[in-house]
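Intended use. Records like the one below are meant for learning the mapping from a protein sequence to its folded structure. Do not use them to infer anything beyond what is encoded.
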Amino acid sequence: MITIDVSAVNIALPSIRESLDGGMAGLQWVVDAYTLMFAALMLSAGAIADRAGARRAYAWGVALFTLASLGCALAPGIGVLVAARGAQGGAAAVVMPASLALIRQAHEDSRERARAIALWTVGGSVAMAAGPVLGGLLTESAGWRAVFLLNLPVGAVILGLLTRVPRSPRRPAALDGFGQLTAVLALAGLAVSVIEGGHLGWTSLPVLGAGALAVVSGFVFRVVESRHRQPMIPPALLRERRVAVPLAVGFAVNAAFYGGIFLLGLYYQQLRGMSATAAGLMFVPMSAVVTATNLVSPRLAERFGRRSVIVLGQLVFTAAMLVMLPLAGDTPVWLVLILLLPLSMGGAVAVPALTALLIDAVPAERAGTASGLLNSLRQLGGALAVALFGSLLAGSGGGFSLPGMRLGLLAVAALLLVTAGMSRMLLTRD
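Structure written out for the chain above:
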């Protein structure tokens, strides 16, 4: 449910633009209000999962997410929709680390836990790939609001099933309100500067002010965390290579996947003139490939080692960015589908291995904090990729800019090559 509200909404963006009269910047905020709150609040969400117990935190998050979905469906304007999307992102931040903590609680054996994490990843990956299909069908048949209304019965079913899950232990974990506030301000300032820079100009006063806010808030956050007795991001975690490298890789992988999905949704509809349903159906092959690759990834990690699989996934993603460079308005559809195969496989190969590596690298009492930090960096990568692509894609008159698309793809490919090199050099062979 959380992941579908990323991929399905990408297909609904042109319809939202027509209905609520939002420009490219408005569409970027519909996506990034969700992912930024997801990224920022997940820093505290891990501690919430530890303090409240994973099951209780999961229930709170699902309930709030369901109510926020209703707010999205009823939004009368782009501003209200962006605010409700922010509330969805905050709720999703609570759910995600709590779900991984529940897996850590249920499976003591590392191999069983790796398979459970792979299954957990399959759910998210299938939703990410199949979401555009569902989003296209719902948008064209019932309107974009149906994408959010679908969450209401699903949320009710989840809460009912959760009553069968054993209670989770509650562990002491500090909540740092001032540190959380500065983290939100830093990420918001960074997003504003990237999103609005492409529309208002990089030297405009609002953009420079947002950039300054990001720098100052980031510095204050670092100072606050270094002096806090129980910081949201324990320095000891970041000094561990098996933690630091997966965090960097998660950022880069999500930048590639979220950025790619955002790009393709607009490419299909704005440049090629496809309907929402047709654009959604273009993602069907991705769904099948993602699912199959997710299931194979743990076996590859057992045979060749997690480091090799993590590096391979990033190299596949780098290839995905490069093979999309020739895309144009007249590229044959069959060729587009073939060129998108690497985009389907890269994250599905790497994410299960890097998640399992991170969870095994921390003690059980830090599972919620570590998983929250990983998902925070992953969401931040996706948010900044959407901000970057959106700023570059807006051509003259708000049209789709192919040169801007290619520049964004090259930037993400360069980032993936850097993190692949880090993985190869800093992770030990297993």
